[in-house]
Amino acid sequence: MEILDNLALGFSIAASPYTLMLAVIGCFLGTIIGALPGLGPSNGVAILIPITFTLGLDATSALVLMTSVYYGAMYGGRISSILLNIPGDEPALMTTLDGYPMAKAGRAGDALVLSGVASFVGAFLATIGLMLLAPMLARVAYVFGPAEYFALYLLAFCTLGGMASNNQAKAALASCLGLGIAMIGVDNTSGLPRLTGGNLHLYDGIDFLVAIVGLFAVAEVFFFIESHGKGSAVGVKLEKVTVPWKDIWDTRWTMLRSSGVGFIAGILPGAGASLGSFMAYMTEKSIAGEKGGFGTGVPKGIAAPEAGNNASAGGALIPMLTLGVPGSGTTAVLLALLMTLNITPGPTLFTERPEVVWGLIASLLIANFVLLAMNVPMVKVFVRVLQVPPAILLPGVTMISFVGIYSLSGSYFDLLLMIGFGVLGYVLRKLDIPTVPVILGILLGGNMEDALRRAMVLSDGEASYLFSSPIAIGLWVAAITGFVAPMFMRKLLKKPQRVTD
Amino acid sequence: MASDRIFGLVMALLALAYIASAVQIQTSFLSDPVGPKAFPILIGVVAAISSIFMVLRPDEDPEWPAMKTLGALAVSVLVLVAYAYALKPLGFLLPTALAAGVLSYQISPRPKAAVLSGAGLSAGLFVIFKYALGLGLVALPAALAG
């Protein structure tokens, strides 16, 4: 039983009091970050990376802390969806559809507990799935050469652009923007500077953390300035919190099915948690049919998206850990974390650094139980947090971003770049151009070019080498389908809008 | 319509400039078959094609904020730029209180609350960063600290 041995190794690392403490802190911070409207898993994790890095935590501890924040934010997103009708993060949008009507009907406590349990089921099953599937995929990934990796990176950009955006040209432009930025700096192979415009600050390239914090966190501040902090916040009072055992038992199959759907959606590159919760909700809605009353505040309508959302958060870790290709914005941020810690994700991670992988998996299992404990009896604490006005929260976020980036390099130039990325992020989101491909491009650009160049060295410049193996051909076909097919399925996949009062 | 066309045009021009500077990348004689130029040029070409698509088939215009809000955004960007320059010579406390206060005022225009949240954030974050997390922050300008 190799898995049990590995798991024992993982728990021997994760179960130390210090690591446990980090997991608890991470879960707590994460739930708060998820619950606050305007802060979600991606920008929450993003602003914390530079600070974690400056604290000088070792790789495993940093990873445990940040993945607890990630899982916690996934749990927390539901709180403001249900109570305020504002999704705390994008994947929690589907939870507003039934969560808010249920809260309005006076059952806010029930909705919160039920969604907490559904989150737990989804995240727990997905972590088990990750444990079983990731080592298998890591073995497959061993046969990947540079040609396959090039095709794989292409697949990530194509499906991300194809599925997660409304306009193919805009998604492609966003990917190119990121890739183009990644090219700036000294070329690894020839050692000569490229595209720096002679600016000495740019010789080291643009730090991906600067770009991520700018595009995700600073841009968000501009959006709040635009709306003057007024969302469509319609609050609902939370009375007594009891455990609705009957609802939990009635929705057991819904939770299991949605976990499966969400997990698969999470593994697909480019799909991520938003698609996971969407698919889970739609599947359950069609199973329940007209009589199911989806959209009026039924328990199944809350359990489905939350189980799906959290299951896909776990599933999305699989391609990120085994192949180094993130499936969503948040996993892109986690990849940035790994790269900051000098951990190269990929098949070799499982053989060379088993303590990192299994320590991470064990701490995810622990984090899940911590989160269940925090989110069911202690949910009232997090509800308090929602009352922090944006006029305090957002300036705080900005200042934390500045200090984080500043402590990385101590240079005002990085801060200016970060503001620039913030403005860029604002304009891009206004024009409905996705920002996640930009991040992915900056993160993967260097690797993608290396893969291409190594492939061409191996084949002595023969371009057909890129399509020489069945795996490579399969990836190319999948990439092209992933980019083209959504153009014809746009009408089918139209996302439902939020309920408005 | 117009927004997408303008942005597409700007990006197309940028892509052309990018290609032009990629063509001039120095190559060393030790280079591999692909070299340092090919991939950036490829990116530039794809970017140019997608920008032209945006010009030809634009989406509907987003709702741009009114002039007053745009002004508030411009002020915030300027404040942040000033903050970036001030952080090193003036220490953490004063610039942070000012910048956080101005941002707070831009989000919700209540002067008293803004002053309070600026001062509170500055002091609170300083304590957290300096003493709880142990980051090496400088509190006040060197001249004042003596």
Overview of this protein structure:
The complex is a heterodimer of chains A (501) and B (146). The longest helix of chain A has 49 residues. By secondary structure, chain A is an all-alpha fold. Chain A is globular and about 70 Å long. In chain A, strands 1-2 form a two-stranded antiparallel sheet. Chain A has one domain. In chain A, helix 3 crosses helix 8, helix 6 crosses helix 7 and helix 10 packs antiparallel against helix 11. The longest helix of chain B has 24 residues. The model of chain B has no long low-confidence stretch (mean pLDDT 87). Chain B is flat and about 55 Å long. In chain B, helix 1 runs antiparallel to helix 2, helix 3 runs antiparallel to helix 4 and helix 4 packs across helix 5. Chain B is mainly alpha-helical and 146 residues long. Chain B has 6 helices and no strands. The chains are: A mainly alpha (501), B mainly alpha (146). The interface between A and B is large, with 64 and 74 residues.
List keywords for this structure.
heterodimer, A: 501 residues, mainly alpha, two-stranded antiparallel sheet, 21 helices, globular, B: 146 residues, 2 domains, 6 helices, 0% strand
The tally of domains of chain B stands at: 2
Order of helices and strands of chain A: HHHHHHHEEHHHHHHHHHHHHHH
Mean pLDDT of chain B: 87
Overall helicity of chain A = over 70%
* SSE class of chain A: mainly alpha
Into which percentage range does the β-strand content of chain A fall? under 5%
Using only C-alpha atoms, the radius of gyration of chain A works out to 22 Å
Largest sheet of chain A: 2 strands, antiparallel
Distance between the termini of chain A: 55 Å
Number of strands of chain A: 2
Discrete helix count of chain A: 21
Gross morphology of chain B is: flat
Characterize the largest beta sheet of chain B: strand count, sense, and whether it forms a barrel: none
